[in-house]
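Field reference: sequence -> structure
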Amino acid sequence: MVTSIPLESDAAASPSCKLHPQSMCPAFGSLRILMRMEGSHPVMATDTGCLYGLTFISHFYGSRKSILAPQLGTAELLDGKVVEGTRAAIEQAAREPGCRLIPVISLCVAETAGLPEELLPQRVGDADVVLVRVPAFAIHSHAEAKDVAMEALLRRMGDRQAPREDRTVVIMGEIFPADQIAIDALVRQMGGDGTIALPGRSVDDLRRAGRAAAFAPLHPFYKGTIRLYREWNVPVAGGAPVGVSGSYAWIRALGALLGLDAERVARVAEQERERAQAVVAAQPLAGARILVTGYEGTELAYARMLVEAGAEVPYVSTSIGTDPLVLPDELWLRARGTREVVYRKALEEDVAALDRYPPDFVLGTTPFAAVAKDRGIPAMYFTNQVASRPFFLSGGLEAILGFIGGALRRGDTYRAMHAFFSE
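Structure field:
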């Protein structure tokens, strides 16, 4: 489930291997959002080892429901009993109280990756059955696995027959709850009817999402879902309401896509820009050098926010692949001093960057943050420390800059501890 971590001394001596994600099994991304939905009872078609590992991780992250699965050991796989076992697990899931959705997750075990969809029921009782193919060796990050799950659910369940909700936008991304409230309030302030937040907890939101007038992926890795909305001829808003300039541009673009009153939208955008500029003025990061690394897929957007606050961010890395949706942030960063933007990153590349650009602070994965702390450099785990805070609009900007500023002010403590334990 977790790859071995090379010694620091090995980083420069051997080339980086990008054939594996250097993280937990990417299928966790799909499983995580599917388990959170109320009335969803996932069935996993895979071997016992993968089932154990993903079940453990899911419960570690606070899952309150079981993952149903057929017994698929060597004997069952060799005997070709995958379909029969999966159908039996689906029948059992349908008997769970309140079951409305049964996502069948097939992983990269050869016999289950080829699970024939036409041999599975499409509906059992009150529950829709949706096959979600997550061949983890072909999906390089758990962020992109979320996209696989959302595209599969929306293709099957998005209601395109009912009248369109002309001033409603689908907001796509796992975001802090306060962010969703703030974005919804802003859309209403602009004159819209509100937002549908996905991935979410409601099966009904999946159906409504097919009727929305616009789609706004707040994270750039929702490629398959974007493709689906374009097939539906639903306009897609690029970018995200991040920082000063990013929020202003996003508000103007979304208002235009929804056909809202231009003057009213411009007024809301200007007010939000003024609030964000006030936050930056109150919590500047001028003079700080920060490295931003992670596997969430939002690293470039976080770096952009830090640069607007005055920080130097020479190096940014992410586990997602390059894409036209990421390119505007990359070009913006490069025009303002970022020297390296690395996609499909490896730990070895991050460690090498630590040597090239000695930072004041590091946002990184667990192993990379450990390397930085070992050198006496303040470092935080990106996922639990940053991605679990508000991020969007001026409220998110204030939360992130306050957190980063506090960490920078504790730099002397890190260095003192490093010196003490090095003696």
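Note: Residues 262-282 form the longest helix (21 residues).
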